[in-house]
Predict the 3D structure of the following.
Amino acid sequence: MKEDSKNFVLFAVLAALILFGWPVISGYFFPTANPPVTKIEGGQTKVVPNPAADPTSDAPGALRDRRIVLAETPRVRIDTPALAGSINLKGARLDDLILKRYDETVAKNSPPIHLLSPAGAAGAYFGGFGWQGDGAPDANTVWTATGDVLGLGRPVTLQTTNAAGQRFQIKLSVDENYMFTAEQTVANGGTAPITVRPYTYVQRAEKSPDPDQWTARVGPMVVVDDDETNLEWDEVTQAGSRFATTKGWAGFTDHYWLTAIIPDQRTPVDLTIRRSAAGRFGAEALAQNPTIVQPGRAAVQTVRLFAGAKEVKVLDAYAEQLGIRNIDNAIYWGWFKVLEKPIFYYLDWLFRLVGNFGVAIMLLTLTIRLLLFPIAQKQFASMAGMRALQPKMKALQEKYKEDKPRLQQEMMQLYRTEKVNPMAGCLPMLLQIPVMFALYKVLILTIEMRHQPFVGWIRDLSAPDPLTPVNLFGLLPFTPPAFIAIGVVPILLGVSMWLQFKLNPQPADEMQKQVFAIMPWMLMFVMAPFAVGLQVYWITSNVLTMAQQWWLYRQHPSMKVATAK
Amino acid sequence: MIARALILMARFWQVGPSRILPPSCRYAPSCSAYAIEALDRYGALKGGWLALRRIARCHPWGGCGHDPVP
């Protein structure tokens, strides 16, 4: 008993450490969920503004309004099912891009996401194509366009001719998602040869507003052959980090958005990530070898620029069909990719079946429990078999009362000769941990889970529960600190786990009993800041375990008597 | 040296996660105790291999009972 109480004190101390240390540790290692999209005030669900997207927030005075900047230069409109915006004819820049399918917040009247913005406006972020060399057009060159709208199946050619008679052409086309393709042509109509090196670039004035996290990297990213490198913002220097490659790409990834420059996958290029003197972050791909174009000849190369949302299927298709290596890894899957992707695709399939991601998560739980059911059943059957051994075990317990290790050994011997075993081993339990982690990553990473409602007040399954009894469900006019603001769903999680433990036979060990008494409530606190979707998974899992227990007891009526005793 | 580190890992498992899981061992001694003994007696390579094989044996369709380190 003494040993037990010592253990219990140790456990209590550990529990307290975990409880209070957890927010600190988890904040670092496990960003728990996406930021809340709603808060509940006075019984009303209010949409929290997205600080990252507000163009007027803390913009330095020198920055002008986006609309004013856009109106200053001639432009070609972009209009596809997924995108809106315009191309700046001054400098041939892609510097105004709106993602039509995504909103800043969950509010009905929310503005869409502005991914790219022109230099001079807040959040300047743009990309483009050009040439290095004497006589090549620069940032001040005003191009002429063959059309006034770039759309699906409606390419636009930008064109400029320099004083020496050399014509530069960029034929831009866009697909139904987020890939721009540029055919860059230099036609030498002059009398002297011209030497140029084509390049592609993306520049952004600011770091991403999304945090760079251990489980969800954000920032500059470079892929060389099959290796990808995620740089940190602070690692980017003016000298730059250079990567020489033929098969690769570079870009900037936000939590949900990506811009990537994809050079012609046959030409050797230098991919460089650097900071400009003005502090802008830049990614560029510059051909290693200059192209010499003789008079009367032309040189063509095709490059691509991705600017859009990191939709799993879209990126997978680009990786496969366009052969862009590892562009699917712009979503930071990590080590558990092999598990995360099947879970994502299965969830997505269920979602299209039922139309609600919360319900899809519940169905996913059901599937996993069904897969594990044979194990539970087998375990239960052998538990029933154990009942028959009860007298023999009693006898052994009497015989080796003083010698615990020996008793253990004799019991195991008994199980072996009688061919029963009460335990399934720890494997079935441990197997669920990677599944849980994979679901956590899928919820946090994939844009498909962003702003997905479940029921009632839950408008985003990838954020924590905003409804908490601590401020009387938002009726009291204060926002409790996040740490004690336990939502309704996490409370349900605690209750369901407590009930589930209640249904199980009580463990014989005193210490175990204590652990089981505290664990549901501890886990309630631990899980509270995580995405509601993850809690939905766990609650469903608990409920299904209880249902399974109930069903198995009905199959083996003798067991019920045993636990009732 | 490597054996020491691996034994430490097994010890960590014993005082950490194993404590809060319901008792579930099919074998005696438990996998962690088995691993510690095997690593101690046979070193990192062979001991580690023995421990791995033992863990691989421990599943609902595997064996059970008294199974000491050879």
Summary: Chain A has eleven helices and 22 strands. Residues 51-61 of chain A have pLDDT under 50 and may be disordered.
